[in-house]
Amino acid sequence: xxxxxxxxxxxxxxxxxxxxxxxxxxxxxxxxxxxxxxxxxxxxxxxxxxxxxxxxxxxxxxxxxxxxxxxxxxxxxxxxxxxxxxxxxxxxxxxxxxxxxxxxxxxxxxxxxxxxxxxxxxxxxxxxxxxxxxxxxxxxxxxxxxxxxxxxxxxxxxxxxxxxxxxxxxxxxxxxxxxxxxxxxxxxxxxxxxxxxxxxxxxxxxxxxxxxxxxxxxxxxxxxxxxxxxx
Length: 231
What we know:
Oligomer: single chain
Structural class: mainly alpha
């Protein structure tokens, strides 16, 4: 068993739950309310800006020129490919400049980004481990939804992006990179890499749920039971 197979197995419960989450199923079936996808897109655009920063930080931690160049290219491609994909959704979803200026991250998006920044303070292996679920899980979700043909064009475009050969190549590259880094890492570092990976898988699952519930700080606060004060 490779290191990436091992850590994926450790996160299997979170991983499998992503495929059956109603948000993901709703994209494939075309039944997901656009208001929920709109909320997700705005949160994901925020996430991807930070994701690109983490990719750039990973490049700065590499020693080999080829790895530096590849990881820097990943940061650029995140902007060019994924953010441009989201921007193509803005108009049909009614996302305006005013909406973007007033944007506030949801608790899950904020926590996930904070986790990635924390992990990226460690080694290159720890950094890659923290960002790999975003690559790998989205590719597998895209593959699962390949047989679906939602009438909503936005959802079909989303599926086409994450099931593409271009995206597959990037995913396999990062999996191989993490396996290679794990071979050189100490047992302690490997354990940190595993922990970062599993935590990111946990947040990936919560990210779907964040979109499904249209989570905000206010909505989460309102679920807390009111304190009963006895006289």
